[in-house]
Each structure stands twice: as structure tokens, then as C-alpha cells.
Amino acid sequence: MEGKEAESNRSNRLSVPARELLTFSTPRDPAQLAAFINRRVLNPEHQHRRRGIEAATIYNRLHGDLPLPFTYRVPGRDDQEAEGEGWPASLAGFPLGQWTAGARRFYARGAMDADRIAQLEKLGMIWSHFDVAWEEGLSAARGWAAENGHLLAPLDATFQGAAVGIWLKNARAAARKAAAIEKRRADGLPVPSLAGALPEERRERLEEIDPSGCPTWPVEWQRAFHLTRQHLEADGALPTGPGDVVRQGEDLGRWVRAQRLGWDKLTTVQQWMLEQVLGITPASEEEKPRPRRTQADKWALNYAAAKKYYERERHLRVPRQHVERSVLGGEDGEGGADQEERELRLGAWISNQRSRVATLTPERVELLSAIGMRWT
């Protein structure tokens, strides 16, 4: 019984094609059988290579190509993924990522025969490390997009440990360089080096994931636009104020408000997208906040209060704690809803002007002197 059990265990460690080849009740290809004996009996030192080819073949069948992370290992025996995808127990835990990286090193040194090169290329092998990095980045970007519904990832976005946000930022920069080169070529201008420009084939593969993934304006704007459109399609109500709706860390109400208030700073295409797709319109004059006062405005406001105090008191010896009330707005002194009453700390302001006389402009010194300012 023990002998039969041991024989059964050895049989289970064989791959399905190997078990079929050694089943004497079925027809066998003599050439295939000879190759099997050469690999397994005459040249056992190539077992690691054989397992790599077998693992690469299965991986290619499952995924359609061979680019994969350096840390990738074949799923273990107890892994449901291995059972569902048809991985044989004999390959459990095989370091396929390291194996493919080693094959690239052999290829780079010119130490790989033509037959093996052709065999690996048929399985989708990519020899360039730069190309591998691109494929790994694209795979991570595709996974991130599948989870989030778009390819407008923030800079700090990651997917299974891969820095997707940074990779996409670099890809967009390369795409913009390619577009700039194409424009120069169309205008009949000299074309600089193509180094760093994104090839057309790669740009198309990115657009297959998300056609809007490389906008001409900031990607943050496009991401908020996309999330707002998703929200409208789901709920039908446009967020209008900060904190109304937050999606993937984006405050959509705050973004909508910023677009309405900053309408004139947007491109014509952005304005069209906001109006026609999201139904957002520019803010009216009544909705726009009053412009912030500049330092010059504040100085003029305090000077007017000082002049008013001088005309009333006939001097400018203002106590430091004195607060002067001033009414702003309105026309010709008439009241109105647009008027605003403010309290100005006139005493402290006068004291500050006196201590900073060396930094005041001659014009300001002259204005204050004319209403009784004493500088010492």
C-alpha cells in the first residue's frame, strides 16, 4: 500500500500534460516524448527552466501576456485561486516573477539561444526593463480604474502597493509632450527629440481605460467634474454648498461653488461642459462675495476716520483705546441695505503711524500732517 501511495503522490506532482504523456493507454507524439525525456531524464539540471516555461505558459493562458511583478509567485496548493485557474500542485509557490527577471538578464547578456527566445516571445515576454515597468504601471492603473470608475487618480493614489498616482502623472506629462511635438510638426516647425514623449500605441491603451484620463486642464478639475456627474446620475441633485456631498475625498459642493464664482477663469470648453453636462451656471453679481480690501484700502479707510475725528475734535491726539465708528457704503450719505457700520481702532492706528513714520510714503506723511498729526 505504501508503494502505491508513494507512486500516487509522485504522479500528483506531475503536470497534466506530463501525466497524459506517460499514460501508456493513450497515443503519444514521439517528438514530444523525446523532448520530455531530454528535459526530465537526460538534462535534469534544466528542471527550473522547464518549470518556468510551464508556469509562464499557464500564466499566458490566463492573462494573455507575460508582464508580471517581480514578487509574483504561483498560488499555493491550498489557495482556491490555484484550484480555480488550473495551476498544478507541482508549481505551487514557484517564483515566476523572479524567473522572468532572470530570463531578461540572460537575454541582455546574449546568453540565450534563439529557440528559447522565440519560445518566450510567443508567450508574450517583454525583454526591456523599461517596457516591463510600463506594463506593470498600466496594469496597476487599470486595477485602480476598475475600483474607482475613472483614471483620474490623485498623486498619492496606490494600487496593491504600486504608486499609481505618480505613474499616471508621468504618463500625462509624456502624453502632453507628444501632443506638443505633433503640433510643432503640423505647424511646420522643427521637431525636438522624441525622448520622453508617449508613443501613440501607449496613449491609445490609456484611453481604452478612460478617454478623459489625460485632460489639458488640471486633473483635479476633471476628477471633480467626473465625480459630480456620477453623483447627478445617481441622485439627480446638484450639490451647491461645502459639505453637501463628498465623494472619494472630493467636496463636490465646494467645487461647484468655486466653478460658479470663478467662471471667467475657465476655458470655453470647461464652461460648456459645466453648463451642458452638469447644468452649472455662473454666479450672479448678487451671489459674488465682496472683493477683499487691500492694504491700501484699509489705510484709506483709517485715514478717513482720522480726518473725521480731526474735523470733530480739532486735533488728532487720539487716546490709544479710542474706537471710531464709521459707516461704509451707500451714495451721498444716504442709507441703504448696502451700508455697513464698522468699528475702527483709530487710537492704535494713529500710534502705529507715528512709530512707523520712517516707512511711510511722503504722500501719507503729508496727508496726516495736514490734519494735525504730531510725529514726536
Any overview of this molecule?
- By secondary structure, this protein is mainly alpha-helical.
- It folds into 4 domains: 11-127, no CATH class; 132-209, no CATH class; 219-278, no CATH class; 295-370, no CATH class.
- The chain is built from 16 helices and 4 strands.
- Strand 1 and strand 2 form a beta hairpin.
- Helix 8 packs across helix 9 (164-186).
- The longest helix is centred in the middle third of the chain and has 23 residues, at 164-186.
- 18% of the residues are buried.
- The model is unreliable at 1-11 and 330-337 (pLDDT under 50).
Secondary structure: number of strands: 4
Sum up the overall morphology in one term.
elongated
Radius of gyration: 37 Å
The average pLDDT value, as a whole number, equals 81
What structural class should be given to the helix and strand makeup? mainly alpha
Helix content: 40-55%
Biggest sheet: strands, sense, closure? 2 strands, antiparallel
Order of helices and strands: HHHHHHHHHHHEEHHHEEHH
Question: Which residue ranges are poorly predicted, with pLDDT under 50 across at least 5 consecutive positions?
Answer: 1-11, 330-337
Q: What is the domain total for the residues?
A: 4
Cα distance spanning the termini? 115 Å
- Tell me the β content: under 5%
Strand order of the largest sheet: 1-2
Count of helical regions: 16
